[in-house]
């Protein structure tokens, strides 16, 4: 259902960075709203590992901001929980989070006009605690495959009327 023909893989020139982009027919603000709500992450996750957000004490659908922490129920063979922190944030344009390994998942939104946005997702391990271990785990290739699967899902969700 999700064609990688829509996705452009970016050669970052960085050993520990994988990135790809997709054109989305939706305003950047609408796409950002999906990204800034952890309870929506499983709706566009292409890795198959994101299950759901653990409800925050304040509210289930709390919207993220810089330095916020959020916890996700995950499954990679076995179920587990991962606490994340928002480490980059520019309203409507940029959001990135990391977990204890300190590598980042980043979404950059570039409005091309009022209804068209270039979305770039990046797995960035330049800040990772032990980037070589990620190589042994094949994390770079696996995350690129996940990005290629995630971006069309995000596009479909953002372009739907019930996003």
Describe the structure.
The protein starts with 7 loop residues before the first strand and ends with a helix. An 8-stranded antiparallel β-sheet has the order 1-2-8-7-6-5-4-3. It is built from 4 helices and 8 strands, in the order E-E-H-H-E-E-E-E-E-E-H-H. The chain has a single domain (4-159), classed as Alpha-D-Glucose-1,6-Bisphosphate, Chain A, domain 4. 24% of the residues lie in helices and 37% in strands.
Number of helices: 4
**Widest sheet, order of strands:** 1-2-8-7-6-5-4-3
The N- to C-terminal Cα distance equals 18 Å
CATH level 4 superfamily: START domain
Average of pLDDT: 90
pLDDT < 50 runs, ≥5 residues = none
How many strands, which pairing sense, and closed or not: the largest β-sheet?
Answer: 8 strands, antiparallel
Give the overall shape.
Answer: globular
Count of domains: 1
Q: Whole-number radius of gyration?
A: 15 Å
Brief characterization of the structure:
The protein has helices at 28-35, 41-44, 131-136, 139-159; strands at residues 8-10, 17-24, 50-53, 69-76, 78-90, 94-98, 104-113, 116-124.
Keywords:
163 residues; alpha+beta; Alpha-D-Glucose-1,6-Bisphosphate, Chain A, domain 4; eight-stranded antiparallel sheet; 24% helix; 37% strand; globular
SSE blueprint:
Blueprint (H helix, E strand, L loop, with lengths): L7 E3 L6 E8 L3 H8 L5 H4 L5 E4 L15 E8 L1 E13 L3 E5 L5 E10 L2 E9 L6 H6 L2 H21 L4
